[in-house]
Amino acid sequence: MDYQHIIHPFEPVYDENSRILILGSFPSVKSREQKFFYGHPQNRFWKVTATVFGDAVPGTIEEKKSFLLRHHIAAWDVIYSCDIKGSSDSSIRNVMPTDLRKIIQNSQVQAVYCNGKTSGKMYKKYHEKNLDISAEVLPSTSPANAAWSLERLVEVWSVIKRD
Fold first, then answer.
1. Which of 14, 61, 91, 98 could bridge to 74 as Cys pair (CB 3.0-4.6 Å)?
2. Burial, 94: exposed, middle or buried (Cβ in 10 Å; 0-12, 13-18, 19+)?
3. Within 10 A of 150 (CB to CB), how many other CB atoms are there?
4. Would the CA dihedral through 36, 41, 43, 48 be positive or negative?
C-alpha cells in the first residue's frame, strides 16, 4: 500500500458548552469515508463513551453529534493533514497539525483527553505549549488495540465523566 497525502475531511464537533476535548490522531479509512469520527464498526469509542455516561450507543452521525454535545464533549483530531498508508497511525509522516485554538476559545474546555498513544504524542509535540493544557492519554478504542477489553476501556475512560 502506498502513502497518500490526505487532508482531514470533516469538521470538529463542539459548542460553547463543551467542557472536555477528546482528540484522536487522524481519521481511519472508514471514518474518512463516512466523514465522521470513529467510523470503523469495530472501533469501540461509541460503546465505551455511551457506557461511561449510561446512555444508548448512538448509531447515525446526527445521533453521535447529539451525544457528544449533550455530554459536553468536543471531538477533533490532532492532525489536519499528513501522508498515511491506509489507517495506520505508525505510517503517519509529514504532519500538519490541526488548529485547536478555535475550539478552546469558543467553548469551556478545561480538560483534554487523547484517544491513544499517537494522539498523545502528537498533542504533546504540536499543541500542549500553544494551548497551555496538559492532556491525559487514554488507551485507544481502535480495534488494533485488542489487548484492552471493552470492560477495561470503560473503567479507564470513566475519567472523562468527572469533567
1. 14
2. exposed
3. 12
4. positive
Give the whole-angstrom CA distance, residue 147 versus residue 74.
27
| Contact assessment for residue 54 and residue 1, using Cβ atoms and an 8 Å cutoff | no
Query: What's the whole-model pTM score?
Result: 0.95
Task: Give the number of other CB atoms < 10 A from CB of residue 32.
Answer: 17
- Whether 107 contacts 74, CB under 8 Å: yes
> Residues 150, 44: contact at Cβ < 8 Å?
yes
Q: Are 45 and 33 in contact (CB under 8 A)?
A: no
Angle at 100 between CA 65 and CA 63, to 5 degrees: 5
